[in-house]
Structure formats: C-alpha cells, structure tokens
C-alpha cells in the first residue's frame, strides 16, 4: 500500500505561482510513475502532468505545458508540481497519484493510489 498526502494548495492571484508537494508513505514509489490530476466542480478528473520512475521523462497536458513542472525525489519519496503563470481556469482540486508502471500514462486507470487532494484557487 502507498499513502499519498498533498500539500501546498491555496488561493493565489492570476499570474502567480504555487508549489504542490506530494509525500508518499508506506511502500516506496521509486519504481512507479507519478502523476498529477485535477478536478474542477462539475467536471471530470483531468490529467495535468506525469513523470516516469526515474524522473528522466515527463509529460504534460497542453493546457499547462510551459507553465507547470513536475519533478520527483525518490530518496525522499516525494513528488512536486511547480505551477507558474497561473490562470483562473487552473482552479481545481489537485490530486497526486502513483502509477501502476514505471513508464507514465495519462489516463487515471493506470494509477493505483490517490491522495485526498488539495484545493488550488486562482483569482482573476
């Protein structure tokens, strides 16, 4: 079992930055891809970013590419999402997820463990 806890969400003005962290406990995540998803009210959960097991390869949704950066520290069992140039449409609950495989996928069905989510609100 892997437990994931997100932190770092909050309220920020458009154009600002936030840094989300995901701390894993239980079993190591070093062999798993990791991802971030988000869900706005009334909308489906949406892929944001993913990183492979080593941190050497990343993938982003088109809506965040160039603004968000995903990284990981396997020694610390943590994953981070740096979010810059935030827009009002980035407002959502953000979830950290641990993938089933070492290589990343963007569909939620390939992720086995999920955190409880952290709220990000961007005011315009």
Structure, explained:
The protein has 124 residues and is mainly β. The protein has no helices and eleven strands. It has strands at residues 2-7, 10-13, 18-26, 34-39, 46-51, 58-60, 68-73, 78-83, 92-99, 111-114, 118-123. Strands 2, 4, 5, 6, 9, 10 and 11 form a seven-stranded mixed β-sheet that branches. Strands 1-3-8-7 form a four-stranded antiparallel β-sheet, with no helix packed on it. β5 (46-51) and β6 (58-60) form a beta hairpin. The chain is globular.
Reconstruct the topology from this structure:
Layout: E1 2-7, E2 10-13, E3 18-26, E4 34-39, E5 46-51, E6 58-60, E7 68-73, E8 78-83, E9 92-99, E10 111-114, E11 118-123
Parallel strand pairs: 2-11
Antiparallel strand pairs: 1-3, 3-8, 4-5, 4-9, 5-6, 7-8, 9-10, 9-11
Q: Which regions are unreliable across 5 or more consecutive residues at pLDDT < 50?
A: none
Please tally the helical runs, counting DSSP H or I stretches of 4 or more residues.
Answer: 0
Strand count, sense and barrel status of the largest sheet are: 7 strands, mixed
Q: Span between N and C termini?
A: 40 Å
Count every beta strand, where a strand is a DSSP E run of 2 or more residues.
Answer: 11
Q: Beta fraction of the residues?
A: over 45%
Rg on CA atoms, Å: 13 Å
**Main structural class:** mainly beta
The SSE string, one letter per element, is EEEEEEEEEEE
Overall 3D form: globular
Mean pLDDT: 96
Helical content band: under 10%
Key words describing this protein structure:
124 residues; mainly beta; seven-stranded mixed sheet; four-stranded antiparallel sheet; 11 strands; 52% strand
């Amino acid at each position: 079992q892997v437990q994931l806890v997100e932190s770092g969400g909050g309220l920020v003005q458009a154009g600002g930055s936030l840094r989300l962290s995901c701390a894993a406990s239980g079993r190591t995540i070093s062999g798993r891809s990791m991802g971030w998803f988000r869900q706005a009210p009334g909308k489906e959960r949406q892929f944001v970013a993913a990183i492979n097991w080593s941190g050497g390869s990343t993938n982003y949704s088109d809506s965040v590419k160039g603004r968000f950066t995903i990284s990981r520290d396997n020694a610390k069992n943590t994953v981070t999402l740096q979010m810059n140039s935030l827009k009002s449409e980035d407002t959502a609950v953000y979830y950290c997820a641990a993938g089933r495989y070492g290589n990343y996928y963007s569909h939620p069905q390939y992720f086995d463990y999920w955190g409880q989510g952290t709220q990000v609100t961007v005011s315009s």
